[in-house]
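In this section we walk through a basic example: taking a raw amino acid sequence and producing a predicted 3D structure, encoded as discrete structure tokens. The instruction is simple. Fold the sequence below.
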Amino acid sequence: MNGREEAEHLLVLAKRHVGSLQETVHLQGFADEDWGFLAQQTIEKLLKALWVLGGVNPPRTHALDPLLDGVPAKSGTIAVPATLLDLEDFAVQARYDAEPLALPASRLQLLDELEQLLDQVQQQLESEFPFGS
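The resulting token sequence is shown next.
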């Protein structure tokens, strides 16, 4: 895969995750731990797409802060709210803790922030590879 194809692939996965989050945002039977873990995976894919757009292979990590800090300058600046970055610790704890956990913000707020982040990355992709190029 070339850079554009790989970035598009990551965006397709992120969009699928966002669709699942949208469908379960009000579903009380869908555990916050699972919802938050999927949200964290979405952010990870979006940040890795920015690495690819910058011409750099992203590291094999789930850690959001290093992924954000390492986004190549060529990819432009991106705003990631602290509440989304807080999902990293949440996801790690949810993976190993059987006790219920509280999300760092409401599902609606997190979903809104994720949708905005997805839009930012989509715009970066479109500016790097205009439609038809």
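Looking at the output, two observations stand out. The helical segments are 3-24, 32-53, 64-69, 82-85, 87-96, 107-128. The mean pLDDT is 92. In the next section we compare this with other chains.
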